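chain below, 122 aa
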Amino acid sequence: MSALLVGGAALAAGPDDPSVQIKAPQASYKLHAQEFRDFAYVYVLANAQAIRFTQTGRRYWASLGSADKVELYPVAANVFVTQAGARVEFSDQGEQVAIDNFERLPSSAALGASKVRMVAAR
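prediction:
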């Protein structure tokens, strides 16, 4: 039996157990109540898809076309990640957005690709 030490806790796995335990991203950056306001717009991406950023209370969302909303977790000023690993970074007071790992968003036009970077300006 093998054991893996993660954050001070040992997780045991059998030699034939291929599973890996991954925790959902935790918001490590606290946005001020009005900080997301600069980003809550629709952006038309370089591939002509539209992405909308919205806020509900202290939760932040992205929706690509008619796809379900995906929660965004703030990790630094102007930077968010999704549980699936897409990274969203706003610049110029929200005038521009860059999305790394775009293919990890539902309904992205980059299905089958990897490490796709998509940019837009409003």
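The first strand starts at residue 2 and ends at 6. The CA atoms of residues 45 and 54 lie 16 Å apart.
thats it, cya
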